[in-house]
């Protein structure tokens, strides 16, 4: 940051003044040092201690994120969307010395201040700090630096332990897609500005804020998806990471002839689900470049990326990180390398279940790899339905088929009394589409083996629940 002090680092829309605020890298670095200095002034022995960060997407979030790690303390970003029971569990698990917060969670949940009042610190407290020397001496790259809680689809979230070595291992890999976009399109990606809508406690947003700083590009912050269009209009942005729900909204604008609402946006990176070929073609025809990415919290988001604009490759999550090792173990994708986590916090049994003695992380994703090295995900190992007959059924396979029904917006396949059942969301007034869906399923069943046939269809009264990463909660 100090090598490019005059380059624009961060922009955000300021509500009180209703204007865009820009922060340059020189100021960014100075504020990080001030925040780190304040923490060290409060606790000179803070190295190795936990500091939670509970805040919306904001400049203060980024400043505190870097400053905590700079002191040698362990950063623990928390999910603002979780209920008190879940958040209370996570805070008690890590036992932080401080909780840096912006007041938004405390405003709706008084128990936060009642329970942890003596440990709460304002996230913007660094602004009045007189201490600016907050650098730890030679941080140990192997030591614990960050704990990210998974947005698990079942059971309690797990605390993923990451060292600085883990955190920075995939940064070169994260920069590669943009070098490739430049080669394919001729665009000057060194001037790209990224609109960050995904929550910063999520691995994708957190790591991209680091990789963009490494590249010296600008991050435009959106603190609430409800203000997406306002912020996009206020801050020119060429690239954005999206989850499926946001991608669908962008697609609707395109097909309805409202491409101009999206401004200078031209590149979209997407994870969490496979894209529909028709959607991809519509977006490409509107001038968008689509990059699909796959990664896990347990690998700091490291995994694969797919920059192929050929619709034939759309169902692939892409090719491997050249700095990691990959293999299939009984159909399960496994990854080994410096980006693989240290383990789950206070959960050696859970760690042993996913990292074997040879250091391979078992992702839980079933996959196949073609002759070009393209990886295709075929389902989740834990989601596989084992019927009484001993037959295995991948719910994701059937969900992909159900989602092709024009009346179906999204679906969830599950076991019901030893048979296959499906819960489908058809939008508002979906009950009126039950006959259409059942007719589609009848025809679909004729193409399926007996054990895969769907025996019951239920119309959901509301959208199916998803976690913070946009994945279905099963």
From TrEMBL:
Annotated Pfam families: AMP-binding
Domain AMP-dependent synthetase/ligase span(s) in chain numbering: 4-345
Molecular function GO terms recorded: CoA-ligase activity
Record's keyword terms, sorted: Ligase
Keyword Ligase: yes
Keyword Cell inner membrane: no
PROSITE patterns assigned: AMP_BINDING
InterPro entries in the cross-refs: AMP-bd_C_sf, AMP-binding_CS, AMP-dep_synth/lig_dom, ANL_N_sf
Protein name (record): Acyl--CoA ligase
Protein species of origin: Candidatus Faecalibacterium faecipullorum
């Amino acid at each position: 940051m100090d090598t490019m002090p005059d380059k624009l680092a961060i922009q955000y829309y300021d509500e009180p003044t209703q204007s865009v605020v820009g922060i340059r890298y020189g100021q960014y670095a100075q504020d990080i040092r001030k925040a780190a200095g304040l923490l060290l002034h409060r606790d000179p022995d803070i190295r190795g201690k936990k500091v939670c960060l509970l805040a919306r997407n904001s400049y203060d979030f980024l400043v505190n994120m870097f400053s905590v790690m700079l002191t040698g303390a362990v950063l623990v970003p928390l999910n603002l969307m979780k209920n008190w029971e879940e958040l209370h569990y996570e805070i008690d698990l890590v036992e932080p010395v401080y909780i840096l917060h912006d007041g938004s969670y405390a405003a709706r949940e008084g128990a936060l201040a009642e329970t942890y009042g003596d440990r709460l610190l304002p996230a913007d407290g660094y602004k009045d700090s007189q201490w600016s020397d907050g650098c730890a001496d030679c941080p140990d790259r192997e030591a614990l630096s960050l704990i990210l809680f998974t947005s698990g689809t079942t059971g309690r979230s797990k605390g993923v332990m990451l060292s600085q070595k883990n955190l920075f291992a995939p940064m070169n890999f994260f920069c590669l897609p943009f070098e490739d976009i430049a080669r394919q399109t001729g665009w000057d990606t060194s001037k790209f500005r990224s609109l960050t809508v995904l929550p910063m406690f999520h691995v994708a947003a957190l790591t991209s804020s680091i990789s963009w700083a490494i590249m010296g590009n600008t991050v435009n912050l959106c603190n609430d998806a409800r203000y997406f269009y306002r912020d996009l209009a206020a801050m020119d942005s060429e690239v954005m990471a999206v989850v499926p729900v946001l991608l669908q909204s962008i697609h609707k604008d395109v097909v309805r002839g409202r491409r101009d609402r999206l401004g200078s946006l031209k590149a979209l990176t997407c994870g969490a689900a496979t894209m529909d070929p028709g959607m991809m073609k519509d977006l490409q025809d509107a001038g968008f470049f689509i990059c699909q990415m796959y990664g896990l919290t347990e690998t700091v988001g490291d995994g694969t990326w797919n920059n192929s604009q050929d619709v034939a490759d759309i169902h692939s999550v892409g090719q491997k990180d050249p700095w990691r090792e990959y293999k299939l173990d009984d159909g399960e994708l496994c990854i080994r390398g410096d980006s693989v986590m240290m383990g789950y916090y206070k959960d050696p049994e859970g760690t042993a279940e996913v990292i074997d003695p040879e250091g391979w992380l078992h992702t839980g994703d079933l996959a196949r790899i073609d002759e070009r090295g393209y990886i295709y995900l075929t389902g989740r190992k834990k989601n596989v339905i084992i019927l009484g007959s001993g037959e295995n059924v991948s719910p994701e396979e059937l969900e992909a088929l159900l989602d092709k029904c024009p009346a179906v917006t999204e679906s969830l396949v599950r076991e019901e009394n030893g048979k296959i059942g499906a819960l489908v969301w058809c939008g508002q007034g979906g009950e009126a589409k039950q006959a259409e869906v059942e007719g589609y399923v009848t025809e679909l069943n004729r193409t399926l083996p007996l054990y895969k046939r769907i025996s019951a269809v239920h119309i959901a009264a509301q959208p199916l629940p998803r976690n913070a990463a946009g994945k279905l909660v099963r």
